[in-house]
Amino acid sequence: MKRIITSIILAIIILSIYTPQDKVSAATAAKNPQQLVKVSTALIGTPYKFGGTSKKGFDCSGFVGFAYANGLGKKLPRSSADMWKVGKAVKSPQVGDLVFFQTYKKGPSHVGIYIGNNSFVHASSSKGVMINKLSDSYYKTRYLGAKKY
């Protein structure tokens, strides 16, 4: 319960920092990672659905693809493994970079969007779209790295 409340408060703070924008051109959005944060955090609470790519339900890569398409106007590969293959590795993630984890199989099997302050938003198979810290014990031990697109 404490994590849920913390996640909600963090999302409210993040959303209050950024100026709302109704429509953002692809050219503007590509230079505006805050728009990606706005789009992705607005989806907090969306349920998890294996293979899901819409507001009815997301899996991790479906969520990231949806957020990137609607927040930055960029199309990403469908799977976390394919996203890992095409991104440019970065030493320390910046807002809008993707963060990858090895969860149920060897290699990248989970992906989220870094939103700053050691936090990332992702579609958790147990709780749907939510915010976690890279330092959370589960994610810290499974972290593979970050990629820029």
Automatic annotation (TrEMBL):
<keyword id="KW-0645">Protease</keyword>
<comment type="similarity">
    <text>Belongs to the peptidase C40 family.</text>
</comment>
<feature type="domain" description="NlpC/P60">
    <location>
        <begin position="30"/>
        <end position="149"/>
    </location>
</feature>
<dbReference type="Pfam" id="PF00877">
    <property type="entry name" value="NLPC_P60"/>
</dbReference>
<keyword id="KW-0788">Thiol protease</keyword>
<dbReference type="InterPro" id="IPR000064">
    <property type="entry name" value="NLP_P60_dom"/>
</dbReference>
<dbReference type="InterPro" id="IPR038765">
    <property type="entry name" value="Papain-like_cys_pep_sf"/>
</dbReference>
<keyword id="KW-0378">Hydrolase</keyword>
<protein>
    <submittedName>
        <fullName>C40 family peptidase</fullName>
    </submittedName>
</protein>
<dbReference type="InterPro" id="IPR051202">
    <property type="entry name" value="Peptidase_C40"/>
</dbReference>
